Amino acid sequence: MSYKEHKDKILGFIEEHEKWRSSTINLIASENITSPSVNRAVVSGFMHKYAEGWPKQRYYQGCKYIDEVELIGIELFCTLFKSDFADLRPISGTNANQAAFFGLTQPGDTIIALHTSHGGHISYMPFGSAGMHALKTEFWPFDFDEFNIDVDKAAQLIREKKPKLVLFGGSLFPFPHPVKELSEVAKEVGAYVMYDAAHVLGLIAGGQFQDPLREGADIITSSTHKTFPGPQGGVILYKNFGEDVAKLQWAIFPGVLSNHHLHHMAGKAVTAAEMLEYGKEYAAQIVKNAKALAEAMAEEGFKVIGEDKGYTKSHQVIVDVSDLHEAAGGWAAPLLEQAGIILNKNLLPWDPLEKVNTPSGLRIGVQEMTRVGMMEDDMKEIAHFFKRVLIDREDPKKVEKDVFEFRRQFQKVYYSFDYGLPMKE
Ligand code: DSN
Question: Which of 19, 30, 115, 183 has its CA 20 to 30 A from that of 151?
């Protein structure tokens, strides 16, 4: 094959991917879809330029328009999240966490965070960014019944371990964490309170779920492409917590970054404007859809986590499929993919780590399907597709035809300046 043929093949696969994924029901809880305006910002002349440092104090010439965009972006994020500072430079959520660890802790310090098997992110772990900075991670005691951090035992752990930093948030995150209850205890021992909002940033922006900075958090780290519907990237939002602010800023640049990704920075800024305009409606509809899907899944006969707590307060619905097949999520997720439903298998808190490839759970997120205009009734249709594949064991290829037909109606990206709100059509 010639090099040109390789190039054609690559572009061809991208086209196939776009055609396929826009025909499927995407329920990956950590993804979303960007608006045409954000796409324009990303595929732009910002994508191959350098701008190290602060706006107006760059180490490179040629940044006068880049500076203007970054300054607008910072202002929009500070307004949206009512934070003293916003830094749009981190290029991912993990990169934002790394910067916070570097800026606010020293090697050898103790932090407390959620274990991956309870829904924590790999960056908190001894084998992840925390461990690479020689931090010792203690884990939040987890209450299986509440599907949340055990407040009393956690308070005891903070007092006993006297960590430098406590970290809330995670990747399996249906219910708000007890930030308010535990921040005061963290302050008693002089610990920073950090909140990883990667999954729920868009909900926080729209006034749903919880408000970490008002509940006692000093700093929010996040990715920008889950419920917050921006391009892949990261952000740090923080209060003015005194002299360590400079340490954090130094950790971001030049600590964990040289040049930031300017096109993604511009895309994040446009998304912040979208969320200031439409975020309230978007976040409210996400939570309504998640609840509607959970209820419909339970009615179809699935074991949905959190029934006594209304199933979910976020974009996530967690289903235990261990009674349907011995390989559980490891069986269900690929079968659903054949039927045009994309999601991921997930360990549930009580699963042993050896079950990582055959975990009990499926993690479902409704934020992307909400963005293309789906409402509560559409969630019932989705629950029924699940039943046809996993309970009735219909041929997934037959279900896929109906999924593609259903999904064809939802091709616009709403809650954006390009298409407005879905109900206005
Ligand atoms: N691993 C991602 C998730 O799916 O939650 C977060 O980085």
Answer: 30
